[in-house]
């Protein structure tokens, strides 16, 4: 936690810390500049995707605006390098930490202790939504700097180590990611799909599409103006979609084209 003072020298509690601490022989001279630049970009993208996934699941906040600052803190005379993310909201910091830790558990084939089956299933669902949002490339950038058998990466929240990755685990995660990337497929539907659009958060352009015959709705991406798409909320449409699947299951829709069908929504939902 960072403490600053105002003009009256009163302490101001401004932000909450999330750290990535790189330790080991590789980091005696700091992280290589190219790796560092890529790391910072990846951290920002990954954090945004985590907050997006939680917002879509109504379990978090949408907000890169809650990232106050990302900075690098080299430690002189130490084989350690820190990347610190400062959040203005402790709940968002916890959301980011928890899902990032859950993601690494998933990639290593482990389960978090003291979690109910429902909690585990919910986290796995959100982790897989991160994979669908193409975040494995950013995860790789986080641990890529580990090059020596003695290197480690620690995920730290408020000075508590939440997870630690060593060089051996890095290689294991690499293998898992290659396998998962093969299970991620995108296809354009040959036929128009019937369904309806529902809103999660209009202010942040978050919508879902509930296709006929599907038990649940899935996030909907679109290139059309938001004002055009919001007029479709609650109306039955036939749409050309790009469908993202993971492990043979639909996870996301991209709206390409559509036409409105004059059907009563309540009757449509009842018909399944």
Separate helix tally: 7
Distance between the termini: 51 Å
* Beta fraction: 25-35%
**Mean pLDDT over the residues:** 83
Report on the biggest sheet.
Answer: 6 strands, antiparallel
Low-confidence stretches: 1-8, 10-14
Number of domains: 2
Give the SSE map.
Blueprint: E1 2-5, E2 11-23, H1 33-56, E3 67-74, E4 80-87, H2 90-107, H3 117-132, H4 136-143, E5 152-157, E6 160-166, H5 167-182, E7 184-188, E8 193-201, E9 206-211, E10 218-222, H6 226-230, E11 236-246, E12 249-260, H7 265-271
Helix pairs in contact: 1-2, 1-4, 2-3
Question: Which key features would you list for this structure?
Answer:
single chain, 272 residues, alpha+beta, OB fold (Dihydrolipoamide Acetyltransferase, E2P), 2 domains, 6-stranded antiparallel β-sheet, 5-stranded mixed β-barrel, elongated, disordered N terminus
Characterization of the model:
With 272 residues, the protein is an alpha+beta fold. The protein folds into two domains: 2-182, no CATH class; 186-271, Nucleic acid-binding proteins (OB fold (Dihydrolipoamide Acetyltransferase, E2P), Beta Barrel), CATH 2.40.50.140. It has seven helices and twelve strands. The protein has helices spanning 33-56, 90-107, 117-132, 136-143, 167-182, 226-230, 265-271, and strands at 2-5, 11-23, 67-74, 80-87, 152-157, 160-166, 184-188, 193-201, 206-211, 218-222, 236-246, 249-260. The chain starts with a strand and ends with a helix.
């Amino acid at each position: 936690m960072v403490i600053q003072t105002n003009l009256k020298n009163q302490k101001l509690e401004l932000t909450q810390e999330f750290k990535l601490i790189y330790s080991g022989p590789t980091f005696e001279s700091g992280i290589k500049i190219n790796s560092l630049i890529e790391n910072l970009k990846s951290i920002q993208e990954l954090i945004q995707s985590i907050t997006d996934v939680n917002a879509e699941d109504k379990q978090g906040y949408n907000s890169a605006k809650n990232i106050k600052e990302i900075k690098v803190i080299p430690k002189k005379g130490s084989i350690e390098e820190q990347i610190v993310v400062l959040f203005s909201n402790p709940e968002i910091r916890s959301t980011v930490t928890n899902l990032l830790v859950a993601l690494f558990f998933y990639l290593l084939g482990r389960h978090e202790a003291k979690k109910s089956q429902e909690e585990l299933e919910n986290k796995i669902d959100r982790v897989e939504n991160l994979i669908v949002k193409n975040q494995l490339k950013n995860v790789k950038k986080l641990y890529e700097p580990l090059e020596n058998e003695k290197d480690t990466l620690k995920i730290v929240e408020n000075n508590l180590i939440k997870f630690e990755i060593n060089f051996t685990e890095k290689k294991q995660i690499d293998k898992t990611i290659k396998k998962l990337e093969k299970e991620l497929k995108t296809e354009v539907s040959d036929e128009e799909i019937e369904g309806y659009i529902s809103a999660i958060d209009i202010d942040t352009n978050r919508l879902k599409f509930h296709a006929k015959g599907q038990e649940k709705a899935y996030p909907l991406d679109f290139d059309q103006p938001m004002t055009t798409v919001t007029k479709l909320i609650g109306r039955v449409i036939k749409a050309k979609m790009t469908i993202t699947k993971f492990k043979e299951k639909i996870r996301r829709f991209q709206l390409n084209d559509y036409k409105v069908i004059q059907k009563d929504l309540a009757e449509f939902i009842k018909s399944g």
